[in-house]
Structure formats: C-alpha cells, structure tokens
C-alpha cells in the first residue's frame, strides 16, 4: 500500500508551494486518475510519490516504510514510473528498450529469467513482429506500447503513468486505456495515471483525484467527482455532464458560443 501524508513541495526557497498538505492512500488493484488544469501539481505529485523529487514536508510510505528509507533499487522493484517525456537520443530496438526494464533486478546483466520476462512482456503487448524494429521506425501508438512493455518487464505491483495519452490520436488513446485496464484486471497491477481528458478518466478509472493549485480538491468514484460542482471550479469552466451506459460523460461546449 502506498500512503501520502501531509506532503508539501516547492521548487525553490522563494517559490510558492507546488503541492500543499496532500494526503492520499492509493487504491489497490484499481486505476486512480489524477485530473486537473495545467499547473495543478499532478506530475509533481507522481515524482514525489516515487521519491524522484523528495518532499519538503510530509512523507510517502510503501507498505508502511518511508520511501526515503528504501534503497533506490528496491523502490524500482515496487514502482515503475513512465514519465510524460521519454524521448531517447540513442537508436535502440523495441527489444533493447524492454530489456532496460529488467535493470533493477539484474543491473544490466540479464540472466535466463530476465530474458524470459522480456519475451513474456513483448508477447503480452503484441510486439513480437516489432521486437527488432528501431523505435523511430514504428508509430507513436506502437512506441507507447513498447514503453508499457518496458515497465511491465520491471515487474512491479505499482505503475505510475504521466499523461500516457499525450500525442496519441483517439484510436490509440482508447487502445492504451484498454491496455491499462487489462493490467489491472488480468495482472492485478495498481495504477496511478495523470490524464487530461476527463472522459477517459470517467470511463476507465475506479478512483479519481481532482487537483487544483497544488491541493486535492475532491477525490472519490467517478460518480462523486465527475460533477459540475467539482469540475467547474477545478478547471474554471462550466461543464455539462451526461450519463451514458452508467458512465459520466463531460460535454465541453460553451453555452455563450453555442449560437455563434
């Protein structure tokens, strides 16, 4: 279990707080979506939770142990984190990329068990025909699946994804969210994901955390969070919410512009 208690964070002595007094318990074996406007602190919170950015105040614990007291390699065996920007300047194949996921376990010296895990993840993500392709030779959707295969090879119970739908079209965005859903339902993963599209959060997440100005404004089920009372102040926009097949759907149009 991952618990965040009274976390505050800032980037400089004279800078304002990016995160203020945040407490959160990550729901096990479900998708937790972080939503909010740009600058709300979503990506910063992910970095603090993985100890990539140590908190100024408060604590993050994994199974009751403060993350600051856990060795980096051990944290990497518990949490896999795919950041929003993961461009590589070197020319590598899909196979090479997925092998990087085994580093916390083998230090770069892959043994038979590591090769088996890599092959398993490539197969699971349906990348067999692309394993020897270079990343710059495949589509954006295929490349994102390769990065997911890499973090699967890391073999952690927790997976953090920072805007995994960035630069993907609708087809590949839906495909990616279905993959994330499968990781929970088939593999029992616990996933925390930053999403900009509220409708994807409403459709796929079991728990939603709405953030505003570095604080948690509201958290709960999609039914509890996907409401005008929550979303309007969080995004400074008037939302229209509809129901479809038991799911909440946000309509983004502006009443004032409807007749123009």
Strand tally is 12
- Class computed from helices, strands and strand pairing: alpha/beta
What is the H-and-E element order? EEEHEEHEHHHHEHEHEEHHEE
Give the low-confidence spans: none
How many helices? 10
Amino- and carboxy-terminal Cα gap: 51 Å
Major sheet summary line:
6 strands, mixed
Instruction: Report the sheet-strand fraction.
Output: 25-35%
Strand arrangement within the widest β-sheet reads 6-7-8-3-9-10
Mean pLDDT: 92
- Approximately how much helix is present in the residues? 25-40%
Gross morphology: globular
Radius of gyration: 19 Å
How would you sum up this structure, described in words?
- With 260 residues, the chain is of the alpha/beta class.
- The chain has a domain at 79-155.
- Helices cover 33% and strands 26% of the residues.
- It has 10 helices and 12 strands.
- It has helices spanning 42-49, 72-75, 94-100, 103-106, 112-124, 140-153, 170-187, 198-204, 222-225, 228-235; strands at 2-10, 17-25, 31-35, 57-62, 65-66, 79-82, 158-162, 190-194, 207-212, 215-220, 240-244, 247-251.
- The strands form 3 sheets. It has a 6-stranded mixed beta sheet, sandwiched between helices.
- Helix 3 packs parallel to helix 6 (140-153) and helix 5 packs antiparallel against helix 6.
- The radius of gyration is 19 Å and the shape is globular.
- The chain starts with a strand and ends in a 9-residue tail after the last strand.
């Amino acid at each position: 279990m991952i618990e965040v208690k009274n976390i505050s964070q800032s980037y400089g002595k004279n800078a304002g707080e990016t995160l203020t007094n945040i407490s959160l318990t990550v729901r096990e074996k479900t998708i937790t979506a972080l939503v909010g406007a740009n600058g709300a602190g979503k990506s910063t919170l992910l970095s603090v939770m993985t100890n990539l950015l140590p908190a100024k105040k408060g604590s993050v614990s994994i199974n009751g142990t403060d993350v600051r007291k856990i060795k980096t390699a051990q944290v990497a065996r518990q949490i896999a984190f795919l950041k929003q920007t993961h461009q590589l300047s070197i020319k590598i194949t899909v196979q090479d990329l997925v092998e990087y996921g085994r580093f916390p376990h083998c230090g770069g010296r892959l043994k038979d068990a590591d090769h088996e895990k890599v092959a398993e993840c490539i197969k699971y993500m349906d990348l067999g025909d692309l394993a020897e392709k270079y990343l710059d030779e495949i589509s954006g959707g295929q490349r994102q699946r390769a990065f997911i295969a890499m973090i699967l090879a890391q073999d952690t119970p927790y997976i953090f994804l920072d805007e995994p739908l960035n630069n993907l079209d609708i087809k590949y965005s839906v495909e990616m969210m279905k993959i994330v859903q499968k990781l929970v339902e088939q593999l029992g993963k616990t996933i925390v994901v930053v999403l900009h599209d509220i409708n994807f959060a409403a459709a796929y997440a079991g728990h939603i955390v709405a953030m505003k100005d570095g604080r948690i404004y509201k958290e709960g089920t999609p039914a509890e969070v996907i409401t005008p009372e929550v979303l309007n102040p969080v995004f400074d926009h008037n939302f229209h919410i509809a129901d479809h097949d038991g799911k909440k759907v946000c309509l983004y149009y502006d009443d004032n512009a409807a007749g123009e």
